[in-house]
Design a protein that fits this description.
The complex is a heterodimer of chains A (185) and B (220). Chain A has 185 residues and is of the alpha+beta class. Chain A has five helices and five strands; from the N terminus they run αβαββββααα. Chain B has 220 residues and is α/β, with parallel strands linked by helices. The chains are: A alpha+beta (185), B alpha/beta (220). The interface between A and B is medium-sized, with 33 and 30 residues.
Chain lengths: 185, 220
């Protein structure tokens, strides 16, 4: 009995495609995001701005309540987490979603607000930080991509298939990375 | 039926992607933390002096999270608030990342102490790499190349790289934006080695196996 390999090939390609469409989009988008780490932070939106408060107290008299009071003057009274004094004339206050560093001599402060970038933070987490089980699933996905790529070569028959147009495009796709390796490796 | 299932999937996907109140890694990782009866507990103030005795061994240490790496979340720095001494914590294979929201929290970390030895051979190799990069790169890229070397060496960001050079304190400084050139760092290391009276410098960090956030009420 002759095995209908094209039928099986189409079925495998189709079902793996359905199964991994979400993974492909997640990895593609986060791949683009991570490719440009020098241009942006794909995980967090970090906002930095300057503030000024009148600090009349001595460092030794600044306790948790006083720090909350100071935060109140910049609209962060409810966000206090922790504080400490880096160096002799600085106060660093950790707040929910960021931190503030005050110069105790001048009262000048720098607020750093950190907010997770919607969608990308989650996708990058999946792409960039695999835990043990997610790494196994990712390996399966990577294997499936290979199967998808190879099975995809043989979906179409005729002049647009692997013996015609498909062959030309496939060869171009092989040549491009080889050219890059020749010139830049 | 299919439409209903698809609709639920879309809602679930949106919910997950927009959820900004994700649990800390600690919650997830703590579940498989094993209690080690012989676990050594170190204080941050004693870390630099004692870490050499426990290289490759599992220890526990607690401190205030002063900084986390915002790009990959693969490391964080904990400090002793009084002395401002710092310990670098690297994410182990069981820790996906350190979330930025950990900053300002007190954490208890269990992990393995790693030692990075910087000696003259190491610095010569590093220096040669920087110079080669600068020679091969066009003029406008040369400075960038040096910066990249700085990243690979002193910051230790690229753990998968051929050479992982992670100067503890300098790595922290670099991670916090205090960037100095790679060649300048090399010279600084040479001075430090000379001043130390030894033939190398040792930098210690902890590869995190697990950690937990200590609630504020039980900080003391």
């Amino acid at each position: 009995m002759k095995i209908k390999w094209r039928k099986w090939n189409r079925a495998i390609h189709r079902d793996l495609g359905y199964l991994f469409v979400a993974m492909t989009i997640i990895y593609s988008l986060s791949g683009i995001a991570i490719n440009h780490l020098n241009d942006w932070n794909p995980n967090y939106v970090i906002t930095i701005y300057n503030v000024h408060v009148d600090l009349s107290h001595e460092k030794s008299s600044i306790d948790k309540n006083e720090v909350k009071n100071i935060l109140g003057r910049i609209g962060e009274e409810d966000n206090y987490k922790k504080h400490y004094f880096p160096g002799n004339n600085q106060l660093k206050v950790f707040i929910d979603g960021g931190n503030v560093i005050f110069d105790l001599d001048t009262g000048d402060g720098v607020v750093e607000k950190i907010k997770r970038r919607p969608l990308f933070h989650a996708m990058n987490f999946l792409h960039y930080n695999p835990g043990k089980w997610w790494a196994i699933f990712s390996d399966i996905f990577a294997g499936a991509l290979i199967v998808l790529a190879i099975s995809g070569l043989f979906i179409i028959r005729g002049k647009n298939g692997i013996k015609g147009r498909g062959a030309i495009l496939t060869i171009i796709g092989i040549i491009l990375p080889i050219l890059y390796l020749i010139f830049f490796y | 039926m299919i439409r209903k299932i698809l609709f639920l999937f879309v809602i679930a996907a949106l919910f997950v992607s927009c959820n900004n109140t994700q649990n800390t890694s600690a919650d997830k990782e703590n579940t498989d933390q094993e209690v080690n009866a012989e676990l050594v507990t170190l204080a941050i103030v004693d870390f630099d002096n004692q870490a050499g005795n426990y290289v490759g061994k599992e220890v526990q240490i607690s401190g205030l999270v002063n900084h986390t790496c915002k790009h990959g979340g693969k490391r964080m720095f904990i400090i002793d608030e009084e002395t401002e001494q710092t310990v670098k914590i690297e994410a182990g294979e069981n820790i996906p990342s350190f979330d930025a929201e950990l900053e300002g929290s007190i954490v208890s970390v269990t992990g393995i102490i790693n030692e990075l030895i910087i000696d003259e051979a190491y610095l010569i190799e590093w220096e040669a790499e920087i110079k080669e990069e600068m020679l091969n790169a066009p003029e406008e890229e040369a400075e960038l190349a040096e910066g990249e070397e700085e990243g690979e060496h002193a910051e230790g960001e690229h753990a998968e790289g051929e050479h992982e050079h992670a100067g503890g304190g300098m790595g922290e400084a670099a991670d916090m934006g205090e960037h100095i050139s790679g060649l300048e760092k090399i010279e600084n290391f040479r001075k430090e080695i000379k001043e130390s009276g030894k033939d190398h410098l040792s930098f210690y960090s902890i590869e995190c196996i697990s950690f937990e956030v200590i609630p504020e009420a039980t900080e003391n």
